[in-house]
Amino acid sequence: MGCCTGRCSLICLCALQLLSALERQIFDFLGFQWAPILGNFLHIIVVILGLFGTIQYRPRYIVVYTVWTALWVTWNVFIICFYLEVGGLSKDTDLMTFNISVHRSWWREHGPGCVRRVLPPSAHGMMDDYTYVSVTGCIVDFQYLEVIHSAVQILLSLVGFVCACYVISIFMEEEDTFDFIGGLTAHSYYQDHVELKPVRLSK
């Protein structure tokens, strides 16, 4: 019963992680955030692997998922520090785009209540420069929306880590019990079918 409950919980949690990762991936693509895109892609693959391992009783796959959740928590903590500018980090740098573009988070110009206006460029400016885009009326600043996304990912990963450890322990106990019963049955079978022959000792 415990195994079924643990497996069902982990399966539902993996499905929820997939949905949240896909939602985040879409908005990161819209904002050309290449570093988060790569991280989300790896996360989706590992979550699918963990889901497959849970359904097919493959503890090794779940172990991989468990290790990844710890790395995923670390990555999302870094993202939170990045957008809150903790430890000398700055959200205005091109770190999330690998320094290959000037794009920022999609939520910067399309957050709830945001009004985006393109200002006339100066003679020395470029039209696609963020200097000439005015965003006003945002209900929530984009950095806090990114922080909320990362916080949700951390929460799901922590719960997934606990559930995965529980499911792994249950699987291991079942394997040990199965091996013990199988070995005992084979030993009993051997004792029941062995022929006892009298041995004559020559004088």
Automatic annotation (TrEMBL):
Signal peptide start and end residues: 1-21
InterPro entries: Na/K-Atpase_Interacting
Ranges that cross the membrane: 34-55, 62-86, 151-171
Superkingdom per UniProt: Eukaryota
First-listed, main subcellular location of the protein, grouped into a coarse class: membrane
Subcellular location: Cell membrane
Keyword line: Cell membrane, Membrane, Signal, Transmembrane, Transmembrane helix
UniProt keyword Oxidoreductase, yes or no: no
Membrane topology: Multi-pass membrane protein
PANTHER family to which the protein is assigned, alphabetical: SODIUM_POTASSIUM-TRANSPORTING ATPASE SUBUNIT BETA-1-INTERACTING PROTEIN 3, T-CELL LYMPHOMA BREAKPOINT-ASSOCIATED TARGET 1-RELATED
Assigned protein family: Belongs to the NKAIN family.
Protein name in the entry: Sodium/potassium-transporting ATPase subunit beta-1-interacting protein
Organism classification: Eukaryota, Metazoa, Chordata, Craniata, Vertebrata
